[in-house]
Amino acid sequence: MDAFAIVGHLVMLALVVAIIAPLFLPRRGNPAAWRDLWYWLAMPVPPLLVLILLRGQVRNEALIFGYGLILFTSFVALLGAIFTIIRVLRHLDGTRPGVVLLWATCLTMLVAILMPGVPQAREAARRAQCRYNLKYIGIALYNYHDEYGSLPPAILATNDTEVSWRVLILPYLDQSALYQRYDQGTPWNAGVNQPVSRTPVPGYLCPSIPHAMKPSADQYAPTDYAALVGDETAFPAGRTVTFNEITDGTSHTLLIVEAAQMGIRWAEPKDIDVPFASEKVRGQRKGGGPLNPLTSSEHTGGVHALLADGSVRFISENIDPEILRGMTTRAGGEPAAEF
């Protein structure tokens, strides 16, 4: 939290004290008065000030929560005002809304302190889900390897059509029904495959991406994960690879990486062509970043990647390009390096 937010909280605290202090003055025996309404009407002010001061510093989820808090305090204020009016009309003793207002104010200040941490907590959950997605893809690849004796081809050419590896492993991702509807003899974006290709697959979507679970402009469901394709990778064109061929070590060889905002559809036979990609990692974009990166994400500081041993590692956007290049090859002979 920066100095501006801290000063804003202190100013707000002073305003809150000024509002609630008169409520604790002796009221016993004093008749209810119309001026008591002022205290209730002031109740929504603290959360409104919080929202104004922190606007632009928090993500939309926190703003929505802030709007909800304003509605809540406004509702409480309305009830307090109604009871005050009734007591005035019936010439009863003055109300003491101080306790209610005190609790509402404490809640407001607590939210003001915790609200900047809400987006970070939500992003941590998203990152955990992203790691799980890649881990699950890794298990699917291993199960495919056990059944067919090799990793799936990046693109399976059949009957003048091309089928993506993401289609081939659907049965191992609990998506057998979707797999059975897919016709491998028809292009991915034509005929009977159109409704299939437009169906989002949750395991292919990183929840940190704004488009998660939403179709793209052409209505075809996107993916945020792609294979590294190239003659020296684990997914060379025109052939398949076994784990025994990964002599650089499965714990140092990349299989699948994040491919955020690259415009790839999950059923599309398209991935990351390593020879034409820069040896860069692009994390969450803030006004720029490397063009045509090898891998990209909406996570701060780097990306998740699935290695050939089935583990998922977080790769820093500051990784040495030479180390990153060595991790793309299956048998390049590069020395193992920490990353």
The number of domains: 2
Number of DSSP strands?
9
Shape call:
elongated
Strand order of the largest sheet: 5-3-4-8-9
One letter per element, helices H and strands E, the order comes to HHHHHHEEHHHEEEEEEEH
Q: Number of helical runs?
A: 10
Q: Beta-strand percentage? A: 5-15%
- Give the fraction of residues assigned to helices: 25-40%
Distance between the termini: 30 Å
Q: In this structure, how is the largest beta sheet organized?
A: 5 strands, mixed
Low-confidence stretches: none
Arithmetic mean pLDDT: 80
The helix/strand class is alpha/beta
| Rg (CA only) | 29 Å
Keywords for this entry:
five-stranded mixed β-sheet; alpha/beta; elongated; 10 helices; 339 residues; two-stranded antiparallel sheet
